[in-house]
Amino acid sequence: MKTLMGFVAGLLFSLGLAISGMTDPARVVGFLDIAGAWDPTLIFVLGGAVVTTFIGYRLVWKRDQPLFAGRFALPTRRDLDPRLLGGAALFGIGWGLSGYCPGPAVASIAGLSLPLAAMLIAMAAGWWVAKRFSGSH
């Protein structure tokens, strides 16, 4: 059931990205181009995500446990370490250079292009390097 719910959540996320136009890297690059032809669409998508999360958390915290798991799984660390900061920086650089973050990239696989393939290969290589050097095999 956990896998099915993960699939359903991923499917809903992908549909939201496609409907909002966030699978188009030109939109993201347009948002980052504040000195040129700025496209504010991403602000509205992010705002919708914040509102949805705000409401969702209020509903979820009223429950003793999740619907499809025995307990809530929340991160316990709150510190900023070099790995977290480095990963965040690489994520931002990759997003800015390609116009894709991982969600829209995976949602865009049906229209695979050379830049998208390059981004997905670089992302998979980054995962491999992170796993290889993190000590968790």
Structure description:
This is YeeE/YedE family protein. The chain crosses the membrane at residues 41-61, 82-100, 106-130. The chain is mainly α and 137 residues long. The chain has one domain (2-40, 77-134). It has helices spanning 2-20, 25-32, 41-60, 82-98, 102-107, 114-134. Helix 2 (25-32) crosses helix 4. It is globular, with a radius of gyration of 17 Å. The model has no long low-confidence stretch (mean pLDDT 86).
Give a topology summary:
Blueprint: H1 2-20, H2 25-32, H3 41-60, H4 82-98, H5 102-107, H6 114-134
Helix pairs in contact: 2-4
Summarize the structure.
The chain is an all-alpha fold.
Largest sheet: none
What's the β-strand tally?
0
> Strand content of the residues, in percent?
under 5%
Shape: globular
Low-confidence stretches: none
Number of helices: 6
How much helical structure, as a percent, in the residues?
55-70%
Order of helices and strands: HHHHHH
Give the termini distance in whole angstroms.
26 Å
Structural class: mainly alpha
Tell me the Rg in angstroms: 17 Å
**Structural domain tally:** 1
Rounded mean pLDDT score: 86
Question: Characteristics of this structure?
Answer:
137 residues; mainly alpha; 6 helices; membrane; DUF6691; YeeE/YedE family protein
